[in-house]
Amino acid sequence: MKLSKRLRKIEQMVTSDYSHIWDCCCDHGFLGAALLSRQAAKNIHFVDIVPELMSELESKLQRFYSNSESHWYTHCLDVAALPLLQHEGKQLIIIAGVGGDLMIQFIEAIHQRHPKLCVDFLLCPVHHQFALRQKLNELNFSLQDEVLVEDNQRFYEAILVSSAPDENAPITLVGDKIWQSNSDKQTDINKKYLTKTLDHYQRIQQGNTSDVSHIIDAYRAITL
């Protein structure tokens, strides 16, 4: 099973010693299966709200991972309703493949239900990255890691955060580490992404539907 560049990068960002990993909006379960193959956690949970997907995934997991050293579980439920308190140990919630607006709803609901629970989130929105970062900042989450990846001519920010505050690791509204580069190829990706993002917000500004001048200013302040 070959992962896309986006999913491979997300999979590589899972390095801490987690007891439970929740692969949310997991679709066909490719990411969770890759984590299961390398025993990234003692327990891997596959979560999606579509019954047909989960039934199909359950069959595949039983076929290929019946003897897995890591335990796996499938859950057909809303991400906002994850039964986090039923489990002990360090937990990671991965949400990818949906927009930042929906991620905000999930994160707010989880945080309201478990305000004192320390949990990590690995997020890779398909759009609305600025709004998502703004919400994470408001919730006083802290940054663990962030990367920018180009996959099939689309750009994705993958952001690993903790619900535990850390004044030395703030989540910036336009990203910080994602703009740093150690290769010409990554520098080119960064430039293309910055140009595309600025063009997007400038079109919105020209449409006069909303004032996004503060967002444009924030991206213009980035130096590559």
From TrEMBL:
SUPFAM superfamilies: S-adenosyl-L-methionine-dependent methyltransferases. PANTHER family: TRNA (ADENINE(22)-N(1))-METHYLTRANSFERASE. This is tRNA (Adenine(22)-N(1))-methyltransferase TrmK. It comes from Photobacterium sanguinicancri.
